[in-house]
């Protein structure tokens, strides 16, 4: 069962990384006016797909990757494909306005780098989220700051005392002593 859980976790993390990476390419390509023919998660054969606003969104059987298929990504092969489909040169020129290979080089470079940039953004967000989680802090021994009047510690402990043992057990960190006291309180 541990192996299956590890494989499922690996595939889930991979799918998230690929999805974020491909979303970077996709979003910048769309913003730059590049015609995106397909956005796929996984590699074909397809499980399911839907066409929306000129782009096919597909979920594929092999979950070890993904892709963004842009018009003109393979150079002029797409123009030749359109010719073979019987489109006129005017229709081909109109369709190829959104072709990747006809965009300025800085735009093409930005689309190519956008995937990696999104992975860095994801990493930064995950680190920020992890570092913002509350953490128990316990450094060094517990130092008595004050003793409450009328408490069992009155007369036994003084401000400035270091508590390093309790019930014959040694504690190096205050959080270890706190955990022990909480555990004893639950038993009582």
Description:
With 188 residues, the chain is of the alpha+beta class. The protein is built from five helices and six strands. The protein has helices at residues 2-31, 77-84, 89-95, 105-132, 174-187; strands spanning 36-52, 55-70, 142-143, 162-163, 165-166, 169-170. The longest helix is centred in the N-terminal third of the chain and has 30 residues, at 2-31. It starts with a helix and ends with a helix. The mean pLDDT is 88.
Q: Give the structural class.
A: alpha+beta
Rg over CA atoms:
31 Å
Please, what is the average pLDDT? Answer: 88
* Major sheet summary line: 2 strands, antiparallel
Extended strand count = 6
Question: What is the rounded distance between the termini?
Answer: 38 Å
Strand order, largest beta sheet:
1-2
Poorly predicted runs of 5 or more residues: none
Q: Can you write the helix and strand succession as a string?
A: HEEHHHEEEEH
Nutshell version of this structure?
The protein is an alpha+beta fold. 46% of the residues lie in helices and 22% in strands. The longest helix is centred in the N-terminal third of the chain and has 30 residues, at 2-31.
Map the helices and strands.
Blueprint: H1 2-31, E1 36-52, E2 55-70, H2 77-84, H3 89-95, H4 105-132, E3 142-143, E4 162-163, E5 165-166, E6 169-170, H5 174-187
Antiparallel strand pairs: 1-2, 3-4, 5-6
Identify the notable features of this structure and list them briefly.
188 residues; 6 strands; single chain; alpha+beta; 22% strand
